[in-house]
Amino acid sequence: MTGVPLNVSIRLQLNLFMKTVSGITETGKIADVVMPMIWFEESGYIDGPILSTFHTNLVVLPAVMEFMQYGFIALGVATIIIASLMHHKFKRARTNVKMTSEGLDNPGASYKEWAKGDQDKKEKCDINNAGG
Questions:
Q1: Contact 32, 18 (CB under 8 A)
Q2: Cα 103 → chain centroid
Q3: Distance of alpha carbon 75 from alpha carbon 81, whole angstroms
Q4: Whole-angstrom distance, CA of residue 27 vs CA of residue 19
Q5: CB 83 within 8 A of CB 76
Q6: Confidence band, pLDDT 50/70/90 cuts, at residue 125
Q7: Do residues 88 and 111 both lie within one domain?
Q8: CA distance linking residue 13 with residue 11, whole number of Å
Q9: Are residues 73 and 41 in the same domain?
Q10: pLDDT attached to residue 6
Q11: What Pfam families has UniProt attached to this entry (predicted)?
Q12: How far apart are CA 101 and CA 27, in angstroms?
């Protein structure tokens, strides 16, 4: 992902190919063979704070961001639902206050029930005024 090697190994082997050479008597009794001459190996790896930084940036943060994106989506949906419910509740409360201030104590009552309730209130007022 970064192009930086975290673990490296270098191996090198030098071989010598030996065979019979005509005209050289010393090689007359040698069978064809590949003989290793030098072996070299070196390896290294990144550790410490640099490895911690790479691990955090390449493994931990992407996993956290994956989780957080769904968390933020859920939080946004919950906020929209709560706002909608509160808007509906306050709108209903304003409607009830308006109806009560106009004399409609029971917003679910029919016009006849409302008129009868209004007539009863007038009669009570007339009785109270007549006595006092």
A1: yes
A2: 53
A3: 10
A4: 7
A5: no
A6: low
A7: no
A8: 7
A9: no
A10: 80
A11: CD36
A12: 123
Tokens of 41: 């190996």
Residue 30 sits in the same domain as residue 5: yes
CB-based contacts of 58-67 (< 8 A; 24+ apart in sequence):
58/1, 58/2
Give the count of domains, the chain: 3
Residue 117 has pLDDT above 80, yes or no: no
Encoded tokens for 83: 């706002």
Does residue 122 have a pLDDT over 60? no
- Residue 106 CA to residue 97 CA, distance in Å, equals 11
Residue 12 is part of which domain span?
1-45
Residue type, 103: G
Structure token pair of residue 20: 């019979």
SS3 annotation, 28-92: CCCCCEEEEEEEEEEEEECCCHHHHHHHHHHHHHHHHHHHHHHHHHHHHHHHHHHHHHHHHHHHH
Taking only the tens place, the pLDDT of each residue in 44-100 is 988 888 888 888 888 899 999 999 999 999 999 999 999 999 999 888 887 776 666
